[in-house]
Amino acid sequence: MQSGSNVIGTFVSQKISKIRWIEEQYVEGNSFLTGSWENAENSIKLWTHKFSEDGTDTSPQEKAEILFPGDVTELLLLRNNSENFVASSSTGEVRQYRISRRPDLPPKIIEVLSWKSLHKWKFEPASCTAIDVYDGDIVSVGEDGRINLLTANQKDVICSIKDADSCTITCVCFLKHNEILTGNLRGQMRSWDVRCPQKDSNIESKFMKNGDQTGTTCITHHPTQRHIVLAGHEDGAIAIWDLRLASYPVSILTAHQYTINELKFHPDRPNKLLSCSYGGELWHWDAERLGGGDGLGWVNSESSKQKLQVSVLISGLHKPINTIDINREKVVCGCDNEAVYLMNNVFA
């Protein structure tokens, strides 16, 4: 493995599909969650890790585990909450969990609620491919082309759009509390008003990167300017969109050689972006020199590409890096080689 910064790798005996830091309100968080896939028995685990002050490597410690049905396809903390999170499954369901922490007992992951059979074919379940959260609202999309709107701590499905798409919806993100953006296997992206009950009336716009129907694999919006959206694709390209001009991308970045699995903006420094790929690479994109301290440099013209700095944090794993997350100066990623990797001072 080659890396551009100090990396702590830990073997965890599971292929990791999703990894998420648990944010703390006033201090730097030291805990994260992992979800597994393609294992005989999948699970969600809680870990803690502190980088030592003397620079010696310390491995993360497993603190709690709960078994999970099917592959974990997404893990997300509910907004402004360090205890409650939701997870989606390849069996077509979504589950809500709570992390119980008491000073006199070890931490525990407790299931709070489950929404079963959200995604299904006629005689068998369909994968819930992605979810996103906005405060207490949850949206799920799936292999069956369905969209579901849920609310945390409430069993009933708020809204369901059956046959929203004729092919697999691969990714989704909230733009506003009532508006979502989806991407599908053909590379089409659609924005939806989830307040409208009928399929035809809630499609606000639809667009795609180009005419080659390259699948959209992930979507992320700018942390403060939600009309700026970056989409990762099966061909390794990153399309940059200004949804106010959504008929075509502002720019297309030739990025990884293989499929992009996730894109992550730094939540407090939107000029910083991470991408990870099926080819086992983790890259850091720095748009500082594009101008705009608020991260608006991403929508500068094509001529700004040469000012975009790209550094390699990890390469040469020869197994997919499926998932990444950022916590201030720290980065963590999960891979198909049954390991997690932690880095500190990445953005210093």
From TrEMBL:
Gene3D superfamilies referenced in this protein's UniProt entry, alphabetically: YVTN repeat-like/Quinoprotein amine dehydrogenase (2.130.10.10)
Record key words, sorted: Nucleus, Repeat, WD repeat
Stretches assigned to coiled coil: none
PROSITE patterns assigned to the protein according to its UniProt record, in alphabetical order: WD_REPEATS_1
One GO term describing the cellular component: nuclear pore outer ring
Compartment annotation: Nucleus
Principal cellular location given in the protein's record: nucleus
InterPro entries in alphabetical order: WD40/YVTN_repeat-like_dom_sf, WD40_repeat_CS, WD40_repeat_dom_sf, WD40_rpt
PANTHER family the UniProt entry points to: NUCLEOPORIN NUP43
Listed name of the protein: Putative nucleoporin
